[in-house]
Amino acid sequence: MGLDFLADGGADFEHAITVTGFGRFHYMLLAICGLIYMDTAIGVTILSFVLPAAQCDLQMDSTSKGWLTASPMLGMVIGSYIWGCLADTKGRKIVLIATLLMDGIVGVVSSFVQYFWVFLIFRFFNGFAVTGAMGICFPYLGEFQPTKYRERVLCWMEMFWTVGVIVLPLIAWLIIPMDFTYESETFHFKSWNLFVALCALPSLMLGLWLFAFPESPKFLLECGETDAALEVFKWIYSRNTGADPDTYPVKCLQEKTKHQDKSTRSLKLLKRKDLKVLFTEIRDLTSALCKPPYLRNTVVACAIQFGLTSSYYTLMVWFPELFTRFEQFEHMNPGETTSVCIVSALPDNGTFFDPYGCEDTMIAPSVYLHTVYIGLACIPGSIILPIFVHKLGAKFFLIVSLVVSGAVTVGFYYVVNSMQNLVLSCVFEALTSLGISLVYCVIVDMFPTNLRVMAAALSLTMGRLGALVGNLVFGYLIDLACVIPIVLFAAFLFACGLLSFLLPRTGKETLE
Fold first, then answer.
1. Contact yes or no for 144/21 (Cβ under 8 A)
2. Fewer CB within 10 Å, N side or C side of the chain?
3. Are the beta carbons of 339 and 413 closer than 8 angstroms?
4. pLDDT higher for 498 or 512?
5. How confident is the model at residue 2 (pLDDT cuts 50, 70, 90)?
6. What is the CATH number of the domain that holds 378?
7. Could you give the 3-state DSSP secondary structure of residue 156?
8. CA-to-CA distance for 404 and 483, rounded, in angstroms?
9. Neighbours of 362 (CB within 10 A)
10. If you average pLDDT over every residue of the chain, what do you get?
11. Which domain, by its residues, includes 392?
12. Backbone dihedral angles phi then psi of residue 20, each to the nearest 5 degrees
């Protein structure tokens, strides 16, 4: 591309990012954004191993466990939109750093907590923080990519989620069974406390590492800060080529005719007057999402997130419990077959005598192993997706993953043993986790820069709301009428598959 291509007004974003090359910087950016996404995978699933290990120390019965699993989800519902609003007004990088440092600090402090309700409050704030990182890392990564590579790079993020799903049970398996205890009259610190603390450290390290990266140049251009954006392009060019930043061929950038008021980036959140300006900006951006031409995309994205996430998180929380109950049934009734509905209704005979499970807090090795298998099952999809996504499109893969996972959900009603349950669980996890990543990829293309993170955050809020509702419905109905939640979640997934046909084809146009 010659420099004579440039208009008098300067280079546009697509040309400016293309001439920086694609190299070392982009690989480092994918690494840190991928590790952030992997960290969020650990953050949202960590409680599945904390619950059985900490049930005696925190005196948790089944009801308490339900409250504890709901608290981070509630934090996510509230946090998603708040962080999204801030990222679309204050900047991607600074808000992403804030979410990571908050998640890390709260996680480490929570590992020293001695009382259930205090621990529950800390997990609420963990959910509040981790959802911000999850919603912002995709737009932040996507806004540094030329159109040619954007969809493929975003799809590699699914591999990092897969690694997180595999790594978490391995870390838990290594640490939780350790005979490690520090106790005094008023304080105890056991292996599960150490596990919680160690799982919080990556957030702190990633938050600090992110200081070495620039703000999104696409966001800076949207704010009218062309000089700052040009410096970022020069810096990327230098990292990719090894050349002097001053040799970057683009000397000026196109000014945005209508751009976000610069002042929103420098607002002081502690000043009442500045807060009023910020809330006005947030209200305007929100109303823009809820009006044409973005209204249809907003509704479709939110509906897909609600149906997909409610099915995914509810069934994933239930899988380890089903593994355990299938094994209990097969141990007591060797050679006999059973169904999901029969094992889900099995009572726990020890609950009356030992309400907090203090006689046996050991997690069976098979639970760790089955969780690893579920993560390994995601690897083929994580490799196939980035290779073929540019040819077939993210929309095609999203529709296939939703429709097939709906069929798999129906299949749960017909399983008769633990092996069939494990196989279907692996297929379900592989397809639905792929679907969740694909929704984020599509949203990056569907909305303009000034609305992108907020749109992702709004859909994420609906998704977490779906997870909250799904867990409540499933927990209430599984013993009363097992077939209803299975049919309900299958219907959700099929409906999401049909709604995906309404999504625009993405990955072919330059970002707005």
1. no
2. N
3. yes
4. 498
5. very low
6. 1.20.1250.20
7. coil
8. 19
9. 10
10. 84
11. 7-242+291-346+361-502
12. -75, -15
Over residues 442-460, the pLDDT tens digits come to 888 888 877 888 888 888 8
What is d(CA 30, CA 52) in angstroms, rounded to the nearest whole number? 35
pTM: 0.84
pLDDT digits 0-9 by tens, 265-309: 665 665 677 677 777 777 887 888 888 888 999 999 999 999 998
> Which tokens hold the place of 79?
């946090």
What letter would DSSP give residue 10?
Answer: B
Count of domains observed in the chain: 1
Question: Each residue of 188-231: pLDDT tens digit?
Answer: 898 999 999 999 999 999 999 999 999 999 999 888 888 999 99
* Sign of the alpha-carbon dihedral angle for 38, 43, 46, 50: positive
The set of residues, in sequence order, having a beta carbon less than 8 Å from that of 227 and lying 6+ positions away, is: none
Element (H, E) at 173: helix 157-175
The reply to whether 461 falls in a domain is yes
Tokens standing for residue 50: 């904390």
CA–CA distance, 96 with 254 (Å, rounded to integer): 27
Q: Comparing C-alpha atoms, which of 441, 431, 388, 438 is closest to residue 411?
A: 431
User: 235 in a domain, yes or no?
Assistant: yes
In a domain, residue 401? The reply is yes
> Please, where are the H alpha helices in 90-216?
92-110, 116-142, 147-155, 157-175, 191-209
Tokens (6 digits) for 182:
């520090």
Residue 341 is encoded by which pair of tokens? 């509905």
Residues constituting the chain:
512
Q: Is residue 268 part of a domain?
A: no
